[in-house]
Amino acid sequence: MYAECAIYAAILVGLTFIELLLGFPLKGAYIGIYILCGTLGNKLYYQKAQKEIDHILALHGDHELRRSFIYQKGGTSGWGIVYGIGMILIGVIIELLMEEGFYY
Where is the chain membrane-spanning (predicted)? Predict the structure, then answer.
């Protein structure tokens, strides 16, 4: 779900720049985004997983082949971990810049 993560990160970065322009924090907006992502995140993931499974089931008739493809599509991605850590580091850098007086 790289695209969804990138959209989420872009929204947070956009809010940070809006805060910089306005000169005060938008904590309510962040709380709203966190609640929205928390409530919709599982639903989005389920829909995406179900779409992938349905696609595999439609293309392949052999049970073992289906199982193999589903196993390959699922699980943790090494690049996903690197991507997540990178996003956290970018967030920390932005936060540090804001604390250093970049806010003024």
Answer: 6-26, 76-98
Nearest to 57 by CA among 27, 49, 35: 49
Cβ atoms of residues 89 and 96 within 8 Å? no
Residue type, 93: I
Question: CA-CA distance, 12 to 10, in Å (whole number)?
Answer: 5
Does the global pTM surpass 0.85? no
Residues in the chain: 104
Coil, helix or strand at residue 23:
coil
- State the Cα–Cα distance between residues 27 and 13, nearest whole angstrom: 14
Q: For residues 53 and 69, what is the distance between their CA atoms, to the nearest angstrom?
A: 9
Which residues 6+ apart lie within 8 Å of 61 measured at CB?
none
Is residue 4 within 8 A of residue 44, CB to CB? The reply is: yes
